[in-house]
Structure prediction request, 593 residues.
Amino acid sequence: MNEEQRSIFLEAFSRFPPPQGTDQVLDIQTSTSTQLISSSISIMILILRFHLKGAKLSYGTAGFRAEASILQSTVFRVGILAALRSLKTQSVIGLMITASHNKVSDNGVKVADPSGGMLTQEWEPFADSIANAPDPHHLLQLIVEFVNKENIPLEGTWRGEVLLARDTRPSGESLLEAAKQGISSIVGASAIVMGVLTTPQLHWMVRAKNKGMKASELDYFEQLSSSFRCLVDMIPQGSANKYVSGKLLVDGANGVGGEKLEVLKKLLIDLDIETRNSGKDGVLNEGVGADYVQKEKVVPCRFGPPDVGTRCASLDGDADRLVYFTVLSNNDGRINLVDGDKMLSLFALFINEQLSILNKAKDENIDKDNKTRVGVVQTAYANGASTDFLKQLGIEVVFTPTGVKYLHEKAAEYDIGIYFEANGHGTVLFSENFLCWLEGRISELSSTTKGSEEQKAALRLLAVSQLINQAVGDALSGLLLVEAILQHMGWSIQKWSNLYHDLPSRQLKVKVVDRTAVVTANAETLVVRPLGIQEAINAETAKYDRGRCFIRPSGTEDVIRVYAEASTQEAAESLSSSVARLVDQFLGFGSHR
Ligand SMILES: CC(=O)N[C@H]1[C@@H](OP(=O)(O)O)O[C@H](CO)[C@@H](O)[C@@H]1O
Ligand SMILES: [Mg+2]
Prediction:
């Protein structure tokens, strides 16, 4: 045992004295490296303190989520995983304590990889197995095996570094402490507490830090505000009109997003924002927030008739989702929703416009080889009208299963990849190659045709790449991009909303005996098991004009989700109910709503 490990051990030892019999477990490490043997003593002591209280957990689509009081042990274990990931990649890793749009008594934990993206899917089985290890013996054995299998270097000079943050949930502080203990229990990796942040801020910082860029919270705000300013400064004369210049009302979901928007707002001179539900006197996600607004299609608390016609936006609990809406004038609390699909369409239009200005002057032959590959990524939940609209623009549209980890991966294959889930989580990714080409083009144009439209288009694209979060979907950066583009186009929210009209749709959840009995293919649009159900769904769907319907097991709840679209609301309701009945018939009794 070297000096450093000895001090880690002694420090942990003094805080968490070993219970009786701990020395017996040391046998299982005898075949591993000396580094792990020595640090395993302190890990074991900590494991005993953070013992799992009997819940079955899965890393799922967005990390572990559960009732906060049972999460101490899980978060501690994810801390160990984050430290190992940092050692394996020799890079800074992120660990976020949040349960996003879930109720305030829940919490969760997820890991950001060195790129700032989600934890690699290859490590998810390990995350599941350590989260569910029944006892300290088992847990330590899993860690030892994994370290050996992955050849994780425990003996180098790099000890690992994990940036830690949490949202505003009251349980966050003690869970953050558990994460810190987990992180430092592995050969003394450093846990750097960033405090209360939005999820995308943490992902942004991890990415920036690993790229050797400025990575503080102030740097984040400065990058967002200066790139926004840059876009606004290049708005063609006469474009910005009175429809856009009005106030923007933002529902902060009583979470971290509202709080951060208040800070960002001070740096924005070109935007009049009023934040409501910023958490001072309301409950997180209760009758507020992007998930509530998008799923229920009703106004959030503190919005109502006086706001009719005003541009409104709603963030979710950890500010990685954003939707826009307007309050309808018939005073029944209903809204006109402008969702993730419409944001995607707006971004695609703007980017396409800039690319065509930029490429106008290019030599036809060069153009053929250097054509910028723009791709749009959606899921089966995207409204069919949005997909038609995008295809009409001549844009390549591809589909992935639900979950941003899939969309992000696909979008990264393009020069410019735009992805959004209908619920408002998404971003625009620019490839390194494209950015390199763009910078070259900007300097070329600066020396030949400075101030030209081509040069401005190139500068706008560069500013978009700096404004929109390159690590993960980000409500704050998404909001600024929407606002900049609306000002650029001189569009009101109504004009934006009228780009196309959503097909009426309906989502239901059906409780079944075993949701894993449903196996899907083709980006979740076809059911291959149980046999026969897809044919039955097809027969129902065929009865409806513009009917489209699919089912899939949720990755975050114990339900089968049913999604139906049709030419009228009544038809969408009817199709979804018939298919929910089919789910009951094939998969056991249940109730749906
Ligand atoms: C229909 C729907 O909104 N599904 C959501 C939801 O996943 P499910 O697997 O459908 O439960 O939570 C995911 C994580 O937040 C999000 O990525 C996804 O879009
Ligand atoms: Mg969220």
